[in-house]
Specification:
The structure holds 3 protein chains of 3 kinds. Chain A has a domain of about 160 residues: Rossmann fold. In chain A, about 40% of the residues lie in helices and about 10% in strands. Chain A is built from 18 helices and 11 strands. In chain A, strand 4, helix 12 and strand 5 form a beta-alpha-beta unit. The radius of gyration of chain A is 21 Å and the shape is globular. Chain B is an alpha/beta fold. In chain B, the strands form 4 sheets. Chain B has a 7-stranded parallel sheet with strand order 7-11-6-1-4-5-12, with helices on both faces. Chain B has a 5-stranded parallel sheet with strand order 15-14-16-17-18. In chain B, helix 3 crosses helix 4 and helix 5 packs parallel to helix 8. Chain C is of the alpha/beta class. Chain C has a 9-stranded mixed sheet, with helices on both faces. In chain C, strand 10 and strand 11 form a beta hairpin. In chain C, helix 4 packs across helix 5. Chain C is globular, with a radius of gyration of 22 Å. The chains are: A alpha/beta, B alpha/beta, C alpha/beta. Chains in contact: A-B, A-C, B-C. Strand 10 of chain B pairs antiparallel with strand 14 of chain C.
Chain lengths: ~425, ~350, ~260
Amino acid sequence: MLLELKDYVGDMKRCARCSMCKWPPLAQMKSWRFSNNCPSIARYNFHTYSGGGRMAVGLALAEGTLEEITDEFLNIVYRCTACGACDSSCKYNSELEVLWPIYATRAHLAGMGYFLPEHMMILESLRKEDNTLMQPKADRGKWAEGLEVKDLSKGEQAEVVYHAGCLYCYDPELSPIARDSVMLLKQAGVDVGIRGSQETCCGSIAFQLGFQGEFIKFAESNIDDWNAAGVRKVVTSCACGFGIMKSVYPLLGKEMKFEVLHITQYLHELIKGGNLKLSGAFPARVTYHDPCNLGRKSETYVPWRGEEKKVLGQFILREPQKIIHRGWNGIYEPPRDIIRSVPGIKLVEMERIKEYSWCCGAGAGVKQSMNDFALWTASERIEEAKSVGSEAIITACPWCERNFKDAITESGDNLAIYDVVELIKQVI
Amino acid sequence: MAENNRVLILGELSKGKLSAGTRELLGGGRDLSDILGGMLSLILLGDGLKAAGEESIAYGADEVYLAENPELKNYQADAYLQILETTIKNINPEILLMGQTSMGRDLAPQLAYRFKTGIAMDCVHLDVEPDPCLLRMTRPVYGCKALAVMTCKTKPQMATVRCGAMKPKEPDESRKGKVEVIPAYIDESRVRTQVLGKVEKPADGIPLEIAQVVICGGRGMGSADSFSILDELAQLLGGTVGASRPPCDAGWISSTRQIGLTGKIVRPDLYIAVALSGSSQHMAGCSDSKVIVAINKDPEANIFSLAHYGIVGDYRQILPPFIRRVRQIQESKGEKDAARA
Amino acid sequence: MKIAVCIKQIIDPEMPCSAFRINPEEKRAIPPPGIPPVISPFDENALEAALRIKDEHGANVIALSMGNKLARPILKKALAAGADELVLLEASEFESLDSFASALVLAAAIRKLGNVDIIFTGRQGADWDLGITGCAIAEELRVPCITVARKVEVNSNCVRVERVLPDGFEVIKASLPCVITVDSDLGELRYITLQGLSGIQKKPVQSWTLSDLNLVLPATSRHQLLDIYIPKHETACEIIEGATIEDAALNLANRLKEKSLL
């Protein structure tokens, strides 16, 4: 299952430098102010930071035309949240893969032993303590203390397992959201359990940083644990976790005897089915931020293997036909439906939404190694939210929430940030 | 100088007699010598070596060299090196073997350096071509994930051999051989280190190396407390508990219980591997077990390609009913034995 | 006090089994994509031994690494952990040297550093698992060598080393300078902190080649590698099943009883 950079040489060569990767779909642009879709090139301004630029970078690595891997080169490669906006935009026009060559470039560099020092810390943390936050493994279950829920690691059985994720387990400000998620599920009558201190990282950051060996170990371990526990559904509130479980876990070739759901999908079903009733009011003008990993990056990626035929010396025909993942089938409506069903709320959309949403800035190791870049990206999004007159941003990922909250603290803004679960908790 | 095709073994003693490893080397060395048509020689260093010397003839040696000196009773690198350098040069063997033991891993590289020859450490198989004499040494590499076959063109061709890789011959008291006492003078000025003392940690329970039943926990155990269920099972089966390296590194269990390439090598009749992936470094320590049973949640874990019986699942769900049933079986066996008595 | 620690860059011994492949022409493992090389684990224990002495007595800890195409981010981990300097011995000639030639190069570098009191290495490199280089360095430098150490203490101009034995340990005293090879029993390398990482930039990294060391490498290797292969395992594992997992467990017990194993 390992990513090989040479598999993407064909696509990387065909980048025509049309620059579509730098903008949301032209028909959807509403203002000049919010017309970028790639935080990397928007901030650093050189072509190499855009999706097309990264294709050139990957190609140079694959063809061995680089003399030396310098620190500046590594900065270029890693100043990217792997948000996939470039990939989505490019695919309005063509059928090139952009995001996966980005992943493969990182994997290639990691294999050579090249990455940022902060990534070394994340790697060590994963190897020694099974999480990405340099926290002790033994404390992983602390978020659930006092919560009356089945503990699958003690041999109890449940139909559904709730996977909290590293950030919810270890960030005391965000842990209440995980607790609320579990309590809402129980309230709705779901037979839910957690794995407590035996839960391990989903491997999402490891994969996005290029540490494929680590990713495979964590992913296979999680699949085995959930298979062995006999659960039917795996639910998580972390969009990053959801995205990787949906898009990459199936590629390992291991049988997954369970369905993967994001909490917003599941709660949406439960609310529609009448198991949860939203009665309280929340009179506010809010906007919804689509997390990259819940939206455009959550489609199961199918690596294409086949024959390419050149027709009329110019057009590429692929046999068998390649399935192009444009991000259109991400989870966009369920969170919005939930928000709209809250009495008194007014949902306004930002300019860049759904599969052309602007990243929060925290993904793929950027929050850990370049906090300034992460905060700048978040502040752009906060400006966008304010520009449509919203009083709060609702999101569905702890990394988004964490990054937005840090940006607001730094800028002293008064915009509120809520997770969908926090919103439901207020009105249930 | 004529080719003498001699195989020389550096032997060790255990409680005054030939160590098990030395007897194995003599057995394997005998096979090599028979192919080469040369002599099998043995060197022993220590004190009160006569009985061991005669024993080694019975186990296959043609000649034995004894370096008798009370100072040699405990291994000390510089003292041993002094005597061995000159002695081995005089004997001029084609092949020099010793065990991959505490002494072997310390002494062998230094001897190889001084003889300006190569050495293969921790070999699991040796075979030889007689003319010209070329020793083919097979040893595990990459943490036992692969095997490498090496040769050395300089004399003596040196190898250290893993415990249990060779088999001793049945002792034949009628065998004749030469026992020679060699000079064992030690120049103290060249001895650069000093052994101040020894601390032996008595194994609590049955020592791993002789246990007939070993229950081994791996990384998947998850915590130190989880080992208590393995203790329970070991007690029930009259065995002992071991671990692969990750639990030892994590501090869940003492490192004296580590089984593997750099830990203990065990050969029980029954080896139960719990939540253990079966990495090659670990399997090097237990692959000679008679029956291996594996319990692991991963159906593709490496251990299943090496085990005889297995269950795929979470050990936390499997061990409690397993232990209950084993207890039932023991009790009914006890009743049957009592009834027969 | 000056301490040298030899660290070797190797392919990750903890990689998933499915990723391990041998290149039959080059006769070595193929570095898999996405799996970074690592510092040999026993060399990390060696670094920890050096850092503990630095904590207690103060010392200048210099990490040395020899090879070709060395990955600096991997080796700089030694600096992040607390080493003061990093010396890279990088040359294409250093690619596949045998242990004795490697020891020749490392010893030359240590001599060039001058006045080194202790040289630490791991007990064996976790790729070739030979355990020769440490002893050979000691022979090159004409100093004593203590192998498989689990604890090292320094007292005036001597070391007191606990050396691992099958059932315990022995205590050895040696005067400095000496070489000590370290076992995992000593303890894992300390965790990297953000502080340690930020300090990397200020620490010197030098790069020496063959000519810097004034060395002539031996013309031939002391041994020849005939073949390297992944052995096939041929046990047919009988997987015990059951209607529920409890049933499977009971079935296993019954099966073992049938085979007179209980």
